[in-house]
Write a structure and sequence with these properties.
Layout: H1 2-20, H2 22-53, H3 74-105, H4 111-124, H5 128-142, H6 149-173, H7 177-185, H8 190-219, H9 222-227, H10 245-255, H11 259-289
Helix pairs in contact: 1-2, 2-11, 3-6, 3-8, 3-10, 4-6, 5-6, 6-8, 7-8, 8-11, 10-11
Length: 292
């Protein structure tokens, strides 16, 4: 009864506040409308993909070898997982260490730090096709890597590096200064403080940036067409050319012969992203609880 009366009083006070200030009521309606539009659009897109693609998820679509008849997406799934793993192995350490330097080691007001931040913000706004052309000219042609997994991964690493740097930097800034002061007060060095106190506290925020990076890697098409190629085969080495799920879907829709299979590929792509995000969130929650 007490909780009900308290909630009723809170509701009445909110209504009075909105009646006194019509602008607050208008903003509430605008925010609610924006949320509803976002949810409706998301549900419509996901529902449309599921309705169009689920009926065509046949066993032949998951055969080990791709042919023009079965248009199997299994090689593309393996390639996508390779791309995600290798790109993160390259970009994540560089991005995290760069953010550690910017937040923990660089002096405040340093011009070099200001230039690095401007550079990362500029790189994050460059279209992916520009990255693809750079990867083609530098990795594929200048370094003679050819259209290969390693050329695509290096290009993707450059693409996601600004995102990892910025999210890691914000995660490190969110750690209270009292953590640092307490560690220094106990005689710990700066390096030990960073790796034993600050990084564990910032892991959830860092993983959030990595999850966003995974989404960009999985959904990238333009840059990989120029660097990784479009061959539908399971790569046996980093020098092989292969196609990811997004390129596979693009190729099928472009040919106009397997549009239904392209929708089925979109369903699988959606499931792969959800699975990767689920496991990343599980790891982040374990870090929050101190179980890792």
């Amino acid at each position: 009864m007490k909780r009900t009366s308290i909630n009723q009083i809170s509701l009445n006070s909110r209504i009075k506040t909105y009646l006194r200030n019509p602008f607050s009521l208008l903003m509430l309606l605008a925010v609610t409308l924006a949320v509803l539009i976002t949810v409706v659009v998301l549900v419509y897109i996901v529902g449309y993909i599921l309705v169009k693609g689920v009926p065509y998820l046949t066993p032949s679509l998951f055969e080990f070898v791709y042919t023009s008849t079965n248009v199997s997406l299994f090689p593309s799934i393996i390639t996508t997982l390779f791309m995600v793993a290798i790109s993160l192995v390259i970009a994540a350490p560089i991005g995290i260490f760069c953010a550690i330097y910017l937040v923990e080691y660089a002096k405040r007001g340093n011009r070099f730090v200001k230039y690095v931040r401007i550079t990362t913000e500029t790189l994050s706004g460059i279209p992916s096709i520009v990255y693809g052309l750079f990867g083609l000219l530098f990795f594929v042609m200048a370094l003679n890597m050819g259209t290969s997994i390693i050329a695509g991964c290096l290009t993707l690493s450059i693409m996601i590096l600004p995102l990892i740097i910025r999210t890691t930097e914000e995660a490190l800034k969110s750690v209270p200064d009292t953590f640092r002061e307490g560690s220094y007060g106990l005689g710990a060095t700066r390096l030990r403080t960073v790796f034993m106190v600050i990084l564990p506290s910032a892991v959830p925020g860092i993983l959030a940036g990595i999850i966003l990076s995974i989404g960009r890697i999985v959904g990238e098409t333009a840059a990989l067409i120029y660097t990784a190629g479009t061959i539908a085969q399971i790569p046996t080495s980093l020098g092989d050319s292969a196609r990811t799920l997004s390129i596979h879907m693009y190729s099928l829709s472009r040919e106009s012969l397997h549009t239904s299979e392209a929708y089925a590929t979109a369903v699988v792509l959606l499931i792969v992203v959800l699975i990767i995000n689920f496991f990343a969130n599980v790891i982040a929650n374990k870090f929050k609880r101190g179980k890792l």
